[in-house]
Amino acid sequence: MPKKYTFHVSGTHCASCKILIEDVLKEQDFVRGVEVDLDNETVEIETESNQNPEEIAAALTAKIKPNGYMLSVEKNIEEKKPDNVIWQALPLGLAFLALFFILQKSGILNFGIGGKTTPATSFIIGLVASVSSCLAVVGGLVLSLSAKISEDDKSDTKTFLLFHGGRLASFALLGGVLGLAGNAIGINFTFTAILGIVASVVMLLLGLHLLGVFSRNKIVLSSGIFQNINSVFRKVEHKTFTPLLIGFGTFFLPCGFTQSMQVVALSSGSFVTGFLIMFAFALGTLPVLLLLSFGSASFAHSKYAPLFFKSAGVIVLGLGIFALLAGLAGLGIISPLFNI
Amino acid sequence: MNKTVLIIITLGLIVVIGIIFSSGQGSGSAQNVEIRDGIQYVTINAKGGYFPKVSTAKAGIPTKLIVKTDGTFDCSAALSVRSAGFQEILPQTGETEIDLGIPKAGEPLEGICGMGMYSFLVNF
Q: Which InterPro entries does the UniProt entry name for this protein (chain B) (predicted)?
């Protein structure tokens, strides 16, 4: 006669955790049925084992421990832990932000590259751009989306490759088109500024999500809206087309370096030159962005995941606020608040 | 580490970021305004920001703004001077002349880069 036990589970930070835990536990021969309840952080086990609940919990924990989950009979004292994680994540994220803004302020990044712009110099400009204030928008977006994707999905590599591939291809192609068509695309200030504001709002939402502000039972009143937003993100992220499209969209995100390179491509008057210059520029920005997405993926799958997600949330929020205020100032809606 | 220490570090970092954002404003007016042949020229250097950030010029005479770039690739190359209806990406190296007409007293002119992180002000 199978018996039913309910255990508390810890470490369930994503929707796919439910499936993973159920898959692993179902493989155990003494387990008849598994039902994970993410909202209450409980697992209901139907078992034929005659062991006492503590022993079953220990045996099953051994199976799912490598994935970062734990079962317990009593509600775990873990409750206190998330509280502490945020206090570790705050200084970590803020330290990163402080370093980033000091780097901007230091003027190290303002060295000039004289003479004609060749693919080689545009590669170097790309390298510089990838740690410049452009990182606030493009990097912040990449970090937040990467963390979000890694949180939901263990097979994130394909999504990242699509995003970065799409980015390289669209920079090269659009660069070529700029060279060919001259002023046809017209780099419109207002358009890029609005796009920048949209990007910063996405960053703010994802940042809050990473911090766990939207997580279960915290905001009861507005959770309906946020759940909708979440499910939209979830639907959007995993399609093949979307990472490509976002990669494509980064061409138009506000970044002085990108815009300068677009003008170079524009004035080149040739498809090949425009193509090569924008491709080399995108290639220069690639190392840092790759580091951001694959770095966040490897952290997200390690035991530091909770700390990583919270720190990333702090960083993304900070960059999002910065990008939002800058974007509003760029549109002339508010007066500029700061001079980096 | 213990929570109190972490909170203190957090507060410290917030102060540091605050200092980064608020410092370096209004670094005095340099000798960047000159009058030649009855026309006032205000020169601004654009590279990693705009310098000087705050200038003071005379109102009531025809004024031109000259923005100098020298291997500028960053945001400051994407200049927008709203009140003069100017929005352009400056050449990487060179001088761009923007006609400001005859500015009125008490109406400062603000220039800002495309992403909004660098700006400058000319007081009349």
A: Cupredoxin
